[in-house]
Amino acid sequence: QAQLMESGGGTVQSGGFLKLSCSYSGDRPDCMAWFRQAQGEEREGLSHVSTTGVWRTGYADSVKGRFSISQDDSRNTISLYMSRLQPEDTDMYYCAEIRDARECSSWSQYNVWGQGTQVTVSS
Fold first, then answer.
1. What's the whole-number average pLDDT of the chain?
2. C-alpha distances out from residue 36 to 70, 75, 93, 96, 107, Å
3. 3-state helix, strand, coil in the chain (%, to 5)
């Protein structure tokens, strides 16, 4: 089972840009994804990528066109590039993985999580 660690969070002004990274150790997962969650609210799936086999990505409507996911096999890392950030993007961001390539787009199936990294967008 992989262990996940996020980095890259911080505070940025409205309209700004941030890059989040998630490194994994252990065997490569089949799928990885980024989520976010505000305190007291449900976790929201943002983007997923198949990390084995055919390259496939997916995005939630709320971030499509603003966020982009990428994979760096040499560093066992996936990244989330976030642009045109708005105050409503302020949340704790998590990466997650599952070991079933058929479920990459199934947000509810992700079952291994990192500890999260805080993103704050000031107006």
1. 93
2. 17, 23, 4, 11, 12
3. 10, 50, 40
122 DSSP β-pair partners: 13
94/104 Cα distance (integer angstroms): 16
The residue whose two tokens read 């980024």 is 34
Band of the pLDDT at 82, cuts 50, 70, 90?
A: very high
Q: Residue 109: what pLDDT?
A: 95
Distances in Å between the alpha carbon of 116 and those of 7, 53, 112? 8, 27, 12
10 phi-psi bin (left φ>0, alpha ψ -120 to 50, beta other): left
Whether the CA torsion 102, 108, 111, 112 is positive or negative: it is positive
What pLDDT was estimated at residue 1?
Answer: 65
Q: For residue 117, what pLDDT band results from cuts at 50, 70 and 90?
A: very high
112, β-bridge pairs: 97
| β-sheet bridge partners, residue 69 | 80
Q: Is 2 a residue whose pLDDT tops 80?
A: no
